[in-house]
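Handout, page 2. Input:
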Amino acid sequence: KNSILSGFVIEISTAFTVLVASNLSIPVSTTHCKVGSVVAIGRFRSKESVDWSLFRNIIVAWVVTVPVTGGISAGVMALLRLIVL
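Output:
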């Protein structure tokens, strides 16, 4: 029963965050919102229930994703220009 309640709160808080951000024209990721909700529920339940090193790794992965994918896109574009031209 407790996990059902937690799941409900995670889904509602994610939906609320996305709804508010969308109304404010702020781009958000539902995955980011869901992970944030899961961490918030874990932190609310117990300070020890959140593995902060894992959460840090998730944040680092989110930050690194944009420049890495941008670099890959730029590399593919440069390669295509060499091949086409």
